Amino acid sequence: MDTETNTTTVCPKCSGQMERGGLRGDSSLVWGRIKETSIFGVKAVQMIPPAYVIDAYRCGNCGYLEMYAPREQGK
Ligand SMILES: [Zn+2]
Q1: Which of 12, 32, 63, 69 could bridge across to 51 with cysteines, CB 3.0–4.6 Å?
Q2: Cα(17)–Cα(58) distance, rounded to whole angstroms?
Q3: Distance (Å) from CA 64 to ligand 1 centroid
């Protein structure tokens, strides 16, 4: 999965060329399973590890974003 750093894919919306990038700058930009709990009637959402780092592909033509989370955070 990580063999090429400049992989391009084709946009599923407009067939434009998509460029690989990432979402960074905020520690909450990871994917994880969530568990909804209700304590004394108050709903809370908990994130269950492991968390995955998000890779995003952006279409240079229409701006469509496609996201993948192939790697576990911290690995
Ligand atoms: Zn597009």
Answers
A1: 32
A2: 8
A3: 5
Q: Coil, strand, or helix at residue 53?
A: strand
> Residue 65 C-alpha to ligand 1 middle, in angstroms?
8
Distance 17 CA to ligand 1 centre (A): 7
- Rounded to whole angstroms, the Cα distance separating 43 from 52 reads 24
**Tens digits of residue pLDDT in 11-36:** 999 999 999 887 776 655 788 899 99
| Distance (Å) from CA 62 to ligand 1 centroid | 4
Residue 8: what residue type? T
Name the pTM for this structure. 0.60
Q: For residue 42, what are the contacts with CB-CB under 8 A and spacing of at least 6?
A: none
